[in-house]
Write a structure and sequence with these properties.
This protein has about 375 residues and is mainly alpha-helical. The chain is about 60% helix and about 5% strand. It has two domains: about 50 residues, no CATH class; about 210 residues, MetI-like (MetI-like fold). It is built from 16 helices and three strands. Strands 2-1-3 form a three-stranded antiparallel sheet, with no helix packed on it. It starts with about 20 loop residues before the first helix and ends with a helix.
Length: about 375
């Protein structure tokens, strides 16, 4: 028996819920993985520490008023060029605790902890601060004054650890940023155009795979007089793009035959717009996984090079340099434990994020994890 509608009733349209897109569905799966999300929070924490390191620990004021002008000396920790030369001109020698001697009306806002990542703090620098131990031995272990202890030269380990976080994350992000740009671009061209372009790019990939990164870095040290961390990042980036290029090429070979690409060609869309606007966003999912793993590998490589004494600027703080000093001083357990845990936790976090992305973006692994 059919139900009759009343005269004042009108049929209501049926609303079909919109299905989530690929990236939203991937995020919904990824955020249910507790270890991967915990790793994301830890990486965010490390990033905040790296960006705010001059405000956490240092001997340069965050902001100061000197001779009637306002300056930001703490920015000199990011780049020496950002530190106003007036303080060197007036004979401070970067000893900002002497501000009152030159200008009694000056004021300053200091970091949370008064310690320096490059030099030992003397006893007369800060009120109620006895200074760091001058020689290796008693008093170097962790204390309320030196949270992670000090090195053999009396430099605070906590200050070095905090500022070395910036170096570690910078190496990972910049090097894999270079690798990602090169790998995605060359892989996209090889997969889309094919033919002789694909042949040439494939041979270049095979050539780069034959060049060990460590050998190139050692060769650079023999040629360049003064190597910096930027030299290492460029070499790591220019030798770490091959896996990204291969994955991108495979995705483009599959997607360039899709219906939406054929429709774009019929509408007269240019080739470069098809590559970067239509195909590339749909092929990034498997590419993010090797980039994440590559960041962990870059951090580990930089720490290893610093441990061997062939890293970047010798004056820059590094987790690997602290480990190297701990190797020479077996009784100083704090020189091994704290930087070792920093390297281990950073590398583990990126590996967990990469594993979570791999399971969330791969339908085969996704189905297996969902059924489990």
């Amino acid at each position: 028996m059919t139900r009759q509608l009343e005269p004042d009733q009108t049929p209501q349209p049926i609303r079909v819920p919109k299905s989530p897109g690929f990236w939203k569905e991937t995020w919904n799966i990824f955020k249910r993985k507790k270890l991967a999300m915990l790793a994301v929070y830890y990486v965010v924490f490390l990033s905040l520490v790296a960006m705010g390191s001059p405000f956490i620990v240092g001997t340069k004021p965050i902001v100061t008023k000197y001779q009637g002008n306002v300056y930001f000396p703490a920015m000199g920790y990011f780049s020496p060029k950002w530190e106003n030369p007036i303080f060197v001109k007036d004979g401070f020698a970067k000893q900002y605790y002497r501000l009152q001697e030159r200008d009694p009306d000056s004021w300053a806002i200091w970091p949370l902890i008064y310690q320096d990542p490059k030099r030992r703090i003397k006893a007369d620098e800060w009120p109620d601060n006895p200074g760091n131990p001058a020689s290796f031995g008693e008093g170097q272990q962790p204390s309320w004054q030196n949270l992670f202890g000090t090195t053999s030269g009396g430099i605070d380990v906590f200050a070095q650890m905090v500022h070395a976080t910036r170096t570690a994350l910078l190496v990972g992000f910049v090097s894999m940023g270079i690798a990602g740009i090169v790998g995605i671009t060359l892989g996209a061209f090889a997969g889309y155009f094919g033919g002789w372009i694909d042949t040439i790019i494939s041979r270049i990939i095979e050539l780069i795979l034959c060049l060990p990164t460590l050998v190139l870095i050692l060769a650079l040290l023999a040629v360049v007089d003064k190597t910096t961390i930027w030299h290492l990042m460029v070499i790591i980036g220019l030798t770490g793009w091959t896996g990204i290029a291969r994955l991108t090429r495979a995705e483009f070979l599959k997607l360039k035959k899709s219906d939406f690409v054929a429709a774009a060609r019929v509408l007269g869309v240019g080739q470069f717009r098809i590559i970067f606007r239509h195909i590339l966003p749909n092929s990034l999912a498997p590419v993010l996984v090797p980039i994440t793993f590559g960041i962990a590998s870059a951090i580990l490589l930089e720490s290893g090079l610093s441990f061997l004494g062939v890293g970047g600027d010798p004056s820059s703080p590094s987790w690997g340099k602290l480990l190297d000093e701990g190797r020479s001083n077996h009784n100083a357990w704090w020189l091994i434990f704290f930087p070792g845990m920093a390297v281990f936790s950073a590398v583990l976090s990126y590996n967990l994020i990469g594993e979570g992305l791999q399971e969330a973006t791969d339908p085969r692994l996704r189905d297996g994890s969902e059924s489990a």
